[in-house]
Amino acid sequence: MHGRMIHPVNGKEQSQPYDVNGQWINSIDRALLNEDLLNELTAKSIPVKFHHKLLHANFEGKHLTFRDSACEKDATVPYDLCIGADGAYSAVRRQLMRVVRMDYQQEFIPHEYIELRVAPGIGPDGSTHYQLHPNHLHIWPRHSFMLIALPNKVSCFPRPVI
């Protein structure tokens, strides 16, 4: 996304670029990311294990230690590439913070969160297209809440209400 698109009550959209030099940020739907990661792993016959908790990461030795929650046994496994796609309470990030000089802060907001979906538009030939500009984070600020829309690769916009 190249910037924010603000949608005020008066209907006059305001584009606010993220960077004067044209840099952008990427938006990825978490469900689609997880689905793509799982599809790639299974396509390459890489075993996938659920109900395993990451206990320790040795980034120099490239080993991860997990606990199987079903039998309470620990196992250490080697890895070539570690992708931390484990969400808000990321165990991978927590392990990285032990060994990498980084500053991380997590704060939970007292607001509710719900996600809606703006379906893609359908053209006369049946093709789909975005109904909002796809290179922007769309924001509808209203009093004590806001609606945001992030584009994804299937021409629709999941819309979280915060």
Topology:
Layout lengths: L2 E4 L7 E4 L12 H14 L8 E7 L4 E6 L4 E6 L12 H9 L14 E5 L2 E2 L5 E2 L6 E7 L2 E5 L7 E5 L1
Parallel strand pairs: 1-9
Antiparallel strand pairs: 1-2, 3-4, 4-5, 6-11, 7-8, 9-10
Helix fraction, binned, reads: 10-25%
Shape: extended
* Individual helix count: 2
What value does the Rg take, in angstroms?
20 Å
Q: Which band does the percent of strand residues land in? A: 25-35%
- Helices and strands, in order, run as EEHEEEHEEEEEE
Find the count of extended strands (DSSP E, 2+ residues).
11
The secondary structure category is: alpha+beta
Could you give a short account of the major beta sheet?
4 strands, mixed
Mean pLDDT across all amino acids: 86
Strand order of the largest sheet: 2-1-9-10
Task: Summarize the structure in words.
6% of the residues are buried. It is extended and about 60 Å long. By secondary structure, the chain is α+β, with helices and mostly antiparallel strands. A hairpin with a 4-residue loop joins β4 and β5. It contains 2 helices and 11 strands. The chain has a 4-stranded mixed beta sheet with strand order 2-1-9-10, with no helix packed on it. A 3-stranded antiparallel beta sheet has the order 3-4-5.
Compact overview of the structure:
The chain is an alpha+beta fold.
Keywords for this structure?
single chain; 162 residues; alpha+beta; four-stranded mixed β-sheet; three-stranded antiparallel β-sheet; 2 helices; 11 strands
